[in-house]
Design brief:
It contains six helices and four strands. Strands 1-2-3-4 form a four-stranded mixed beta sheet, with helices on one face. The longest helix has about 30 residues. Helix 5 runs antiparallel to helix 6. It folds into two domains: about 80 residues, no CATH class; about 80 residues, GMP Synthetase, Chain A, domain 3 (2-Layer Sandwich), CATH 3.30.300. By secondary structure, it is of the alpha+beta class.
Length: about 160
């Protein structure tokens, strides 16, 4: 959750610059953020190349993907070594024991442009939807929306937009 709070703080600060009355300040702030992102992205990419060339056991990448903060950073720069579908499947596997305890289950139907489409089977319950969404968000912050067939009646809008 700490990384989530940090990302929210960054978004707040960017929002303040975007809402600045001075167009020059807005443009300079945007250039600054882009320059920092490009610098960090290039450095992290190079670090990933160096690590990939090493023969460390266990592979360092395994540690990276298990750490929420590092995993989020790799996602931010498009460098995460595990593809989106695999991360979604792993997230669903983590939440299944909770679902099974409630005689429920969830299945991945498809992923389209960052939108995850799932099918829920069982008695609808808000805490189950929250558990599913939370686990997916932890594993795949790059997901843009989650649609869960079978849990639509819990919310008026069954396409939940995720924000960082």
């Amino acid at each position: 959750m700490v990384s989530q709070q940090r990302l929210q703080r960054i978004e707040e600060l960017i929002g303040k610059f975007e809402n600045s009355a001075d167009p020059s300040t807005r443009a300079d702030a945007k250039k600054l953020v882009q320059a920092i992102m490009e610098f960090h992205g290039a450095a992290i990419d190079r670090m990933m190349e160096i690590i990939a060339a090493s023969e460390a056991e266990p592979p360092v990448f395994d540690h990276f993907i298990r750490d929420d903060l590092v995993s989020s950073l790799l996602l931010l720069y498009g460098l995460h070594p595990v593809d989106l579908e695999t991360r979604i499947v792993q997230a669903l596997d983590k939440v299944r024991p909770i679902l099974r305890a409630q005689a429920a289950n969830v299945y991945l139907l498809r992923i389209n442009d960052g939108e995850v489409h799932l099918r829920f089977e069982g008695k609808p319950a808000g805490h189950l939807r929250n558990a599913i969404e939370e686990e997916i968000c932890k594993a795949a912050a790059d997901v843009t929306a989650i649609h869960i067939d079978g849990l639509e009646s819990l919310k008026t809008n069954d396409l939940v937009q995720l924000t960082l």
